[in-house]
Amino acid sequence: MMEDKHSSFLNASSGEPIAEMIDFGKLRDRIIRLIPLVLFLLIGCLAVAYISVRYTRPLFQSSSVLQIDIKSDAKVLGFKSFDEDINVLAREIEIIKSRLFLNKVAEAINWEVSYFQYGDILFEERYPYIPFKVNVIQTTPDYTDRSIDLVILNNSEFNIELNTPAGVFSKQYQFHDTVQIDMLKVVITPTMNYLDETDNRYFFKINSIPGLVNYLYANLTVEPLDFKAQTITVSFTDYNRDKASHILTAIDTLYIYYSQLEQNKANRQRIDFLNLQLRQTEEKLSDLEGYFENFTINNKTTNMDANLSRTILIMEQLDSQRFATQKRIELCNNLLDKIVKDSQFDLSPAEVMAFSPDLTAEMQRLNTLTEEKQILLSSYRDNTFAFQKKNDEIEFLKKRIFGYLETTRESLYTLLDQLKKRKANLEHEFVSLPGKRTEYTKTERYYTLYEEFYLSLIKNKAEFELAQAGTVTDFRILSSASSSALISPNKILYYSIGVVAWLFISFLIISLGYLFDNKITSQQELERISAAFVLGSIPFYANKALKSSRLVINNNLKSEISEAFRTIRTNLEFLNGHSNKTIIAITSTISGEGKTFIAINLGGIISLRGQKVLLLDLDMRKPRFQEVFPEAHTSKGLSTILINKHTIEECIQETLVQNLHYIAAGPIPPNPSELILGGSFDKLIEKVCESYDTIIIDTPPVGLVTDGIQALKIATLPIYVFRAGHSKKIYLQNVNRLVKVNKIKNLALILNSVKKTSADSYGYGKNYYEVEKPSNWKKIRELLPI
């Protein structure tokens, strides 16, 4: 059973309930020890909270409530509403938070410059009462949205400083002077709000529109308040109380103004589109009307069928004129031939009608002269004067008729050419008339369509304008921008966080200290993690006057430590049973755990019962008895007995306590393990048991050397010592090894140097222990409850 429990402890899986695994006494002790640290942590956390509240810039928030209600009255007039957005609330929230709207707000508020004043630790914005005015004449993006330091030296001078690519610029100026730094040019003038303050250190920023938009976007919060009532909450935060309220007022005002424009944006776009289409359609109709006008002018009609019939009639007339002209040309040619051949002119009625009456008269007169010439030729010779005269008259008349006929023939030829060209034109026009009629018909159809489309556009435009006039935005500010309320720092929150942090850190320190504490601190803990029998615990003992002595039970027989050793003595009697001889071997894991202290005082308390007790210092590597008993002989002892240099009787030494004797370790041998295992040690034990009732062996620490294992094997009561607050839980592995490997039976445990609390005290009271110290051991014997 003991082996199983030791294994369960070493594997950290004992299977016990958590409540039973927790050592509440140890936890309580740790809490008591850490009370000063916990109190210091509380003071520290509260101090941090106070400093955070003290040196955190106050943040203010201004809020307003808007009701979003969009309704359309266009249906009342018989037209459909063009704004049927279901999720109106979410859309309006996004509009307010949009950078497009915030850009309009930034342009409207037009805060060109922001002014700030330095403090000892923090800084504050001087708004609306600015100590000086910065008039920006010229700037570039390199100098916007950045801090420019300014120190007012007196009522007329100031110093300006900023970082430039060339380095730190610092220069002193007069108020009203033009300050030019690279591409930055400003004029700074004092205002009526300036006072000769203790700290005249300021800085200002030239704001850009993108910078203001980012500032508005970062500090604006828009949240739905009541979906059924369609209300939203608009909040704005800033480190300046007045600025937060003024900006929120500007946002609400501009939103009410621009919401009307935004709600009718779709209708305006449709109306603009219709206006564009109307202008284009009017231009097209104007072009078509110009085409009809030109067509009418060019074709003298708009009835192409009548124009076609008229063209055919004109062509027939031209053919008749051309035939008559050709006939007249033939007549002219015949007459010319007759004139050339001196033939008689026999004019037909058609020829007479073809020429003018004058020409007809001339030709008839020529016929008459020709006849008269023939008559003269019959009576006169051809060389007579009368004949010659007649002949000249005939030739002159011929020339005149010939010239007239030539002129007439040329004019007839010209007329014939004109008739041919005109007919050709008419024939070409006749061929193009069907195409013109088709084009005219198509253009006329387009004109009709454009005219109908134009009328439809006018109608739709009227409908959209009426819908725009009927759509109204009924946005109401239910709660205007309130006076900015302080939202940070929240003192209660900060101090609450400090207290919570204190509780958490304290719990963490206590918990981690408890969990990572691998030291054995109480008898209850030792009993819980070990299956071996725990004889008892020895309270912590500190006496500066007894630096070299560890025999303490003789100082006060009724002290707490004496009672503890009595308890252990009683428990040993139960373990030993009816055995007359008791061999007690006391060991530990490492040195410093108090095994020598336990051995000596346990021997002393047993000897008070009248038993003869012999103490053996088996720790020949590091002897301790000479520290406890200054009169001890270091030249002889256990080491000289084992090598047969001295006898047992020669090495036994007495103490101040009656019946308590001891044998010191003697000179330190080079081979203590061989001396113990050689067989002489067993004989030594057998021999001393003949003279003493109890043998107590102070063995070396088994965690360091194996010298004492032989003593533990021959002991009837092996004891393993742990020191509270010093021995580690892992030392129990040595206990398991002694039980499992070395087969040590009846191994018992003692916890040494336990610091008792009020809850762990025996309850005897202070007066019980503080009795007069006996002057000699006879009185001690008389007081013993034997």
Overview features:
786 residues; 6-stranded antiparallel β-sheet; 8-stranded mixed β-sheet; disordered C terminus; alpha+beta; rod-shaped; single chain
Summarize the structure.
The protein is α+β, with helices and mostly antiparallel strands and 786 residues long.
Architecture overview:
The two termini are 37 Å apart. 25% of the residues are buried. With 786 residues, the protein is of the alpha+beta class. The longest helix is centred in the middle third of the chain and has 86 residues. Strands 17-24-23-18-22-19-21-20 form an 8-stranded mixed β-sheet, sandwiched between helices. The chain has a 6-stranded antiparallel β-sheet with strand order 4-3-11-6-7-8, with no helix packed on it. Strands 1, 12, 13, 15 and 16 form a 5-stranded antiparallel β-sheet that branches. A hairpin with a 4-residue loop joins β3 and β4. The chain has 26 helices and 24 strands.
